[in-house]
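Appendix B, Record 12. Input sequence as logged:
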Amino acid sequence: MLKKVRFILIMIFFFGNCCLQAQALSSSREKAFELRKINPPNLAKANLGKHIICHRSMREGSPEISVEKIGNKLVAHSYGYGGSGWTLGPGAAKHTVGLLQDAMRKNGLSQETPVAVVGAGAIGLFSALELVEQGYKNITIIAESFENLTSHNAGGLLAPVSMDNKPEMQKLIDKMGIDAYVFYQGIAQGKNPLIKKGAIIVPTYFETREESGLEPYVGQVMDPAKDVVLDFQNGTKRIMVAYDDGIFMDTGYLMSSLRAALGNKVTYQQKKINNFSELKENVILNCTGHGAKDLMHDEKVISVQGHLVMLQEQNPADIDHMILIYFGKNKTKAGFDIKRSFYIFPKRLPGSAENHVGVIGGTFIEGADAKTPHHEEFAIMIQGAKQFYGINDKLAAN
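Logged structural output:
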């Protein structure tokens, strides 16, 4: 049985080997790039903390961003951002609330009109905050749950990745991302009057500029990427591109900060909504994520499963950057389509010790839900991280 498991893992990682071998360095190429030394994280068994499975809500084709009349209700939709909810959140809220304001004015409605925000994830809370900042006085956030949401557990890299998007939507997606970058930059620079912490500027590394998704931001809010060689000081080096003004969002902290910023300016109601007719409010912001599949009968909404592992007993100075690389597409053991990747961010769980820092991910499994947890992906994911860093299992304590 053990031999069979080893064989499966070897076969699964064949594609990863091919990907990483493509980065093999010649001495001449290495000299052309800036050399940066990075200590790999400790990935022995004792350094692996909580294992987390998240389910992102992605809408095939593009997120739903629109306003319509449903019966006597004026409903603005903002859902289906996949793994880019935090990346686009502030910008998506600004755009969607703007659409709603235009529609309200056309219908003779004022800022005194009661508004229901359905959904309490990042998109819902950012939308509520935008309404508050635009002067709306009567806002109720309605959600089935307010705690331990995917938005609390998400990694926190600002990059428009892991979402489905029609080409004609790209200009709007880029604008929302740039607006979000400015929002988080304000937090990182201590300029946001409501949220003082939760976003920091750190070097962020990708294999290519195209894979980062950040090139539309360059010249707008970000500096050009640099070609670098990462030296892990164990004989392994990787050619990467570096965005030295990348932004990490501490998602758990930001969820608490958004709630605090909203304070008593909004009302909260814990309730599952099956139909908009159940709401007394005639103006609604629909930020339901997964819930939109049933609420809107939107069959384009799918669950996209992700795996991540929190790190512990680390040197915080070794995790002062972010890395994201892709291993390619494959099939899980259960036959689901999967995009495997490796990422590391300086994320902490709320209340954790100073040296319990770092998160390793990740996976992107379309259609997988809680009934199909794919627990085997945790081991595959950690092995991919070790391979990237050139960590020899024989030398690491497991």
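Confidence is low (pLDDT under 50) at residues 1-26.
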